[in-house]
Amino acid sequence: MVRTLLRVPATARSGEVIEIRTLIAHPMETGFRPGADGTVQPRDIIRRFTCRFNNREVFAAELHPAVAANPYLTFTLRVEESGILAFTWEGDNGFSQTETRPIAVA
Questions:
Q1: Is residue 79 a contact partner of residue 105, using CB atoms and an 8 Å limit?
Q2: 72 with 22: CB under 8 angstroms?
Q3: CA 86 to CA 67: how far, in whole Å?
Q4: N or C, which terminus of the chain has less Cβ within 10 Å?
């Protein structure tokens, strides 16, 4: 399990635009860099990030080897109802990490 940091407001007003910030601690090895012994390190990157709100995709990003380690993503979302935000990072070697956060709309 890797470390994730999420900044999501716990509450919002109906129709409010909220800012969501995500960060995941991941080494993001490009597959082009030689190691100490001179052999190329195998690629190990996060390839896709998705955010779902009440099981509807609201944001997605495709990531490539040029992305830095510990990718930080921020985006906005207009919320109309209470629900659950599900954040999923998918990568090489079968890597998958999902985190959820509730949000209450008044």
A1: yes
A2: yes
A3: 22
A4: N
**3-state DSSP assignment of residue 33:** coil
- CB burial class (10 A; 0-12, 13-18, 19+) of residue 26? buried
**CATH number for the domain harbouring residue 87:** 2.60.40.10
Number of domains composing the chain:
1
For 33-64, write each residue's pLDDT tens digit.
898 999 999 999 999 999 999 999 999 999 98
In 43-106, beta strands by DSSP E: 46-53, 56-62, 72-78, 83-91, 96-105
Give the full edge-to-edge strand order of the sheet including 56-62.
11-12, 96-105, 83-91, 46-53, 56-62
Domain that holds residue 24: 4-33+40-105
The model's pTM is: 0.91
Could you tell me the CA-to-CA distances from 11 to 3, 31, 33, 61, 69 in Å, in that order? 24, 41, 44, 25, 31
